[in-house]
Please model this.
Amino acid sequence: MAYSPSLSSHIAFQANPRFSPLSPKPTHKLKTSSFRPLTAIPPLSVSGSVTDLPAVDGTTVAVIGGGSVATLTAVLSLAEPERRRRLQAEEVGGGDKEVVREYFNNSGFQRWKKIYGETDDVNKVQFDIRLGHSKTVENVRKMLTDEGSLKRVTVCDAGCGTGCLAIPLAKEGTIVSASDISAAMVAEAEKQAKEQLSVGNGDAEPVMPKFEVRDLESLDGRYDTVICLDVLIHYPQSKADGMIAHLASLAEKRLILSFAPKTLYYDLLKRGGELFPGPSKATRAYLHAEADVERALNKVGWKIRKRGSITMQFYFARLVEAVPA
Model:
């Protein structure tokens, strides 16, 4: 999950040389009346939501002298964003995890339910994110089906959101354990699963996923495959290492992760977005270098077998499939 003037927790993907994503077929109209394009800023920020924000055009920054921009960026990106994050944490009585839980149980739930859904009431940015996330899900499904039938395969969908992945897998006969830190997300996923799994899917008998309200740290059990999409964006690298190790300990055969890539370019965009927060608060967003993710996997005896990326205008993500070394 990565955006521009604000980085919420969801990402986007592009075709990988090793596998090509199955692009979703958009069938919904696009609401664009109130949208002003965000020219050079993709999905990456942290306070405010790019899904709602007016654009910060290049002229806004260009009128400030080069040296002044550098100074302003250094001061504000280190001071103001951190101050806002502390205030967010104080409001909910905790750290990043509590902020995430509060956000996705309230305003964040309404925003992302709309983005993940099929409503026409989305702007250009939201529609772009919807397509990017759909491509991520399709890439994952292709990774899984390339190995054969999914019938009776056990999958842990860690951070299931509204069930965008769990429900399609269940239609294939996969035994899915789906969880999310947000009770509102889990309730919506369960509701949609009951509506969509009432009929069979060819030869496969749909299996109702087991939905639970749980954070990553509390997950247990053993599964053929563990999948965690667009969740590491909520964890700094120091904690992400532990989360990756924990998720790997739950997987028998493979672990599939997506994350917002940390590169110099994306990091600069993220810092720039922090200087121009929107009116609504979002969660803190963390970018991760692929080398760091790979190192964390190697440390616990896993190796990356497949990797790819999805890049839309407002959604960026890296996708990796790891197996025991």
Notes: Strands lie at 154-158, 175-180, 210-213, 223-228, 251-259, 302-311, 316-324. The chain has a mean pLDDT of 75. The longest strand covers residues 302-311.
